[in-house]
């Protein structure tokens, strides 16, 4: 699937083809930009660790960063592209078994942008499983 400015609406990521509402997409982009410290269009694991370690979480920041990467970094390359990031949040919002409201997602995105810990979203992904194990098992 060719990447476009809106990979979600193009259906590039499985069956998720629903748009994120503007308010949610703005918060998703704001957190991505905050985590992408060097502005190269990707979140590196080291950038996420730095973000959370320098904030409220201190030495526990690395745990939050690694939990996020376990859920979002689909190819396990320790780098999250904006396309992966958007696909993750569309999955969180549109998962029929664990549907979150836009308000709940925005509240959590805001809290994380302020340094609160990453949470394990009920989206069918895990913050504790190794990616290689997920791909082998799934």
Distance between the termini: 22 Å
Give the uncertain stretches in residue-range form. 1-17, 129-138
Sheet of most strands: 2 strands, antiparallel
Shape: globular
**Radius of gyration using CA atoms only:** 14 Å
Strand line-up across the major sheet: 1-2
The H-and-E topology, N to C, reads as HEHHEHHH
Regarding quaternary structure, how should these chains be classified?
single chain
Please state the average pLDDT score.
79
Helix content: 40-55%
Tell me the β content: under 5%
* Contiguous helical run count: 6
Strands, total number: 2
The helix-and-strand class reads: mainly alpha
Provide an overview of this structure.
The protein is mainly alpha-helical and 138 residues long. 49% of the residues lie in helices and 4% in strands. The protein has six helices and two strands, in the order αβααβααα. The protein has helices at residues 22-35, 45-53, 61-72, 82-94, 102-113, 131-137; strands at 42-44, 79-81. A two-stranded antiparallel sheet has the order 1-2. The longest helix is centred in the first third of the chain and has 14 residues, at 22-35. Residues 1-17 and 129-138 have low confidence and may be disordered.
């Amino acid at each position: 699937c060719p990447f476009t400015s809106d990979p979600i609406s193009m259906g590039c990521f499985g069956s998720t083809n629903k748009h994120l509402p503007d308010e949610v997409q703005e918060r998703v982009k704001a957190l991505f930009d905050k985590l992408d410290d060097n502005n190269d269009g990707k979140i590196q694991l080291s950038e996420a660790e730095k973000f959370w370690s320098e904030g409220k979480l201190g030495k526990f920041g690395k745990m939050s960063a690694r939990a996020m990467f376990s859920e979002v970094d689909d190819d396990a390359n320790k780098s999250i592209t904006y396309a992966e990031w958007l696909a993750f949040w569309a999955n969180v919002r549109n998962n029929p078994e664990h549907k979150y409201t836009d308000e709940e997602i925005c509240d959590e995105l805001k809290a994380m942008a302020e340094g609160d810990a990453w949470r394990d979203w009920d989206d069918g992904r895990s913050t504790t499983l190794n990616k290689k194990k997920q791909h082998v098992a799934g």
